[in-house]
Structure formats: C-alpha cells, structure tokens
Amino acid sequence: MEINNSSKHIILIHGACHGAWSWYKVTTQLQSAGYHVTVPDMAASGRDPRQLADVPRFRDYSQPLLDILGSLPPEEKVILVGHSLGGINIALAMEEFPEKIAAAVFLSAYMPD
To answer: Residues in domain AB hydrolase-1 (predicted)?
Structure first.
C-alpha cells in the first residue's frame, strides 16, 4: 500500500536564536517524501528584516506563523513542529487556530500547560 503524503502540510518552527535555515536538511527529506512543507522565519529571526526592538510582544514574534495559518483554506489542517522556543509559537497557534491543527510536535521544545 502506497501512502500519499502530498496532502499533508507540515509547518516547521525554529527555536531561539535560529531561523528557517535550521530545518534545511529536514525540509529536503520531507519534501522528497512528498510532504508540503512550510518553514517560516519568526519575526526578527533568520531573514526577517525586523530588529528585535520592533517586536515588543511574543504575539508579534509569532505573527509569521499566525499569518500562514490565517491564510489557509477553511478545510486545510496542518502538522505543526516546534523546536526549542518554537514550542511556545505552536502553542499560541494551537490556541488561535484549533480548527487548523491536525497534530503538534514539541521537539525538545517548551511546552506550556
């Protein structure tokens, strides 16, 4: 039986002091396996041009992820993977968009109760 991964959308969220670049090997492997993979930079991280002073709240820091989830078609669900500080990002996203989340993976990540 062949598994069709093309309909599965995974969003990888980097940890503290990193950017989307930290997922490059994982992204390539997942895409090769047929998954749709999105790897954003959080605000003031990676290639995002903002300075940390321009990101006063954690919600502002998480806005790139929240924007992606807000732009998804109504019926689409995603798998969120957060590493390190990314666990807090995905927890916030799960609260804001529970209908969009198929699963969440906290990979050596902060996991709020």
So the answer is: 8-109
